[in-house]
Design a protein that fits this description.
The complex is a heterodimer of chains A (about 280) and B (about 240). Chain A is an alpha/beta fold. Chain A has ten helices and 13 strands. In chain A, a hairpin with a 2-residue loop joins strand 9 and strand 10. The longest helix of chain B is centred in the N-terminal third of the chain and has 41 residues. In chain B, helix 9 packs across helix 10. A two-stranded antiparallel sheet of chain B has the order 1-2. In chain B, about 45% of the residues are buried. Classes of the chains: A alpha/beta (about 280), B mainly alpha (about 240).
Chain lengths: ~280, ~240
């Protein structure tokens, strides 16, 4: 369970987060969606103790990240945006050192390393140096490392950024599997389809503020079911409809080129924030 | 606390183990050149304070090398922090600042000891065998502790790797040459001696040389080194918090 109460963060005069309130329930896969610079990484950094909050409260299960930092940190695992593995060490050594940092005894570390590498389909890479792995494999090692101390909460900060579509889908399957095994997952992403595919609930973050919070289905339904994108020169305008018939009726009167499609989460985001997710 | 400290230290040891052949080669170059150029070629017929220049030089090289190698942990921390972002992994882990600093300081001290063994072996080939008694090792422990602690603090304060290089150029390199390593400090004017007295390396050189030549220990140097080390490690603890934005 993750609770954020009136969370604020400012860097001198810049307000990075403005009064964030969230309650992620145990076992939920929650997506935190927003454009670059919206404050997604700042929120995760605060929740994992990497950045100090300016005001408010962050509770991981029942532990306050500022007051009871050691206990709170044990509750969570972090997969940061940038690859932060020890490149000169092997896959198993990276996991082992993580286990040591979380006070796991030697026997438990060895067992968990083998178990996780099999779970993540990385067992044959156990003794490979991290620098010899591809980007996708490094991401999987990072997820395995974050799971090493069996955290209840897993923070994933843009876990598929820079990966090709095939590997991204593989990571999605792994994330789903981890959640089905009982973990609470807090995922930040700027890939709308990632949030749509994975998350049970989504929060839209814009300029440090949550502008919407609901299930992907509810957020999309608020827009309608069908969308028509009309193109005029370099401009594109989208109109939303509850039924396909209503959309067809509208199209009949149009002279410019258009595309009829189903409403997606990006439509909800664009309408609520007025921004393109890039 | 022990677990966190051991994890940090173990990680550094694993990296050191991977790089050991390269490290040994790198650590051998400078002392070898100093021994050939200043000790063997120039100083073979010079006597300093009643001993040959080679005998005078070797303890100085040990002091210099233990300083530079202990301080070099700062570069490792910076690489981990700015390039590989591994520092975030430690920050997110449930370990205290004390564990982190102690682990890194121990790693810096270990590097210093590796370099000292290399110099002692080189010295043996040049015909200089030092008295490696208790006070000799105590002075080395204190000297490497001082500079490893300074390194961790500096690594937390700097904003980039370039800042780190600047500190080395303006503080560590001049100290390496002027801290009583290559020549006796008492040959300089009084005002210069007073300035050099403020440098921990001057005391380390004095203590190491005195112990290795079998003279009575310079207790004041040990006390100064211990106090400086205690001050630097305390500053390092505070600096780790600073690194959290």
């Amino acid at each position: 369970m993750i609770i954020l109460k009136n969370l604020n963060k400012h860097y001198k005069s810049v307000k990075a987060l403005k009064n964030i309130n969230l309650h992620v329930i145990r076992g939920e896969l929650f997506a935190y969606l927003g454009p670059n610079g919206a404050g997604k990484t700042t929120t995760i950094r605060i929740m994992t103790g990497l950045t100090k909050l300016s005001s408010g409260k962050v509770l991981l299960n029942r532990f306050d990240i500022e007051q009871d930092q050691v206990a709170a940190k044990k509750e969570s695992g972090l997969v940061p945006q940038s690859i932060n593995l020890d490149q000169e060490l092997t896959v198993a050594e990276n996991l082992d050192i993580h286990g040591m940092l979380y006070q796991m005894p030697l026997k438990a570390r060895k067992f968990k390393t083998d178990e996780l590498l099999k779970y993540m389909d990385l067992y044959d890479r156990k003794t490979t140096l991290v620098k010899q792995l591809s980007g996708g494999l490094k991401r999987r090692v990072m997820i395995a490392r974050a799971l090493m101390h069996s955290p209840e909460i897993l923070f994933l900060d843009e876990p598929t950024v820079g990966l090709d579509a095939n590997i991204r889908r593989r990571i999605w399957a792994i994330i789903k599997k981890i959640q089905q095994d009982g973990s609470t997952i807090f995922l930040t992403t700027h890939y709308i389809e990632e949030a749509e595919f994975l998350a049970q609930r989504v929060a839209f973050l814009n300029d440090g503020e949550i502008v919407a919070l609901d299930t992907p289905k509810n957020l999309m339904e608020k827009m309608g079911t069908w969308a028509i994108d009309m193109f005029e020169g370099s401009r594109m305008e989208t109109t939303y409809f509850q039924t396909r018939e209503a959309a067809k009726k509208f199209m009949a009167n149009q002279k410019q080129s258009f595309t009829l499609r189903r409403v997606n989460l990006e439509d909800a985001f664009l309408t609520l924030t007025g921004k393109k997710v890039i | 606390m022990i677990h966190g400290c051991l994890a940090i230290y173990y990680r550094e040891l694993m990296i050191m183990k991977r790089r050991l052949p390269k490290m040994i080669a790198t650590m051998s170059v400078s002392p070898l050149l100093y021994l050939i150029a200043f000790g063997y070629a120039m100083g073979s017929k010079i006597n300093v304070d009643g001993c040959s220049y080679l005998e005078f030089l070797l303890p100085g090289l040990i002091a210099m090398s233990s300083m530079t190698q202990a301080f070099s942990i700062a570069s490792e921390i910076n690489i981990a922090r700015f390039y590989w972002h591994i520092f975030e992994e430690f920050q997110a882990a449930p370990i205290s600042n004390i564990s982190y600093v102690t682990g890194e300081v121990l790693a810096g001290m270990t590097r210093a000891f590796v370099s000292i063994f290399i110099i002692l072996i080189l010295g043996y080939f040049f015909g200089v065998v030092l008295s490696c008694n208790f006070f000799f090792w105590l002075a080395i422990i204190l000297n490497s502790f001082v500079f490893a602690s300074l390194a961790v603090g500096m690594a937390m304060l700097v904003k980039s790797h370039a800042d780190q290089s600047m500190f080395s150029s303006f503080v560590i390199t001049p100290m390496a040459f002027l801290g009583g390593t290559l020549f006796p400090v008492d040959r300089l004017p009084i005002w210069a001696q007073k300035i050099l007295f403020l440098l921990p390396l001057t005391h380390a050189s004095k203590a190491i040389r005195s112990a290795s030549l079998g003279n009575s220990p310079e207790y004041s140097s040990y006390i100064i080194l211990f106090l400086t080390g205690a001050l630097f490690i305390s500053i390092s603890f505070l600096c780790v918090n600073k690194a959290r934005d």
